[in-house]
Amino acid sequence: MTTYQASSLVGWITTLANTAKSYGVKLVSYEGGQTLYPSMGNATNKLAAQMDPRMKTQTTNLLHTWSAAGGDVFLYFNLSSGWDNSGYWGLAPEIGYDIDADPGYPTSELYPKWGAIKQIALGQ
User: Fold this and answer.
1) Which of 35, 63, 75, 121 is buried most deeply by CB count within 10 Å?
2) What confidence score (pLDDT) does residue 78 get?
3) Residue pLDDT, tens place only, 38-70
């Protein structure tokens, strides 16, 4: 994912940001976030990736890449949703997850994507 972000996303975002700017509008993401479809194979590894600490780095990098390439508002797709064969869309698979009560936060929280979004929202 790191290579994909650096090699593909920067160019796409930059092009779209320039187009938006030429029309005098902001570039707003819709349904932002990583996409790992378990239904396309390798489901065990894709599920493990959701809770791997490196997912926090990937999520943080995605948001920083968006901003650096000219993106304006980034709408993360989903706060919470069940993780299943259709995807791992939510920052956590359960709405009751309290990151502030997670003993691993801020370095090794149970759901790293949530940790990344919280740190960015706090300006860290």
Assistant:
1) 63
2) 87
3) 888 899 999 999 999 999 999 999 999 999 999
SS3 assignment for the chain: CHHHHHHHHHHHHHHHHHHHHHCCCCCECCCECCCCCHHHCCHHHHHHHHHCCHHHHHHHHHHHHHHHCCCCECCECEEECCCECCECCEEECCCCCCHHHCCCCCCCCCCHHHHHHHHHHCCC
- For residue 94, how many C-alpha atoms fall within 13 Å in the half-sphere facing its CB? 5
For residues 103 and 26, give the distance between their C-alpha atoms in angstroms, rounded to a whole number: 38
- To the question of pTM greater than 0.90 for the whole model, the response is no
**Is cis: bond before 93, omega within 30 of 0?**
no
How far from the centroid of its chain's Cα atoms is residue 45's Cα?
A: 18
- How confident is the model over 11-22, as a mean pLDDT? 96
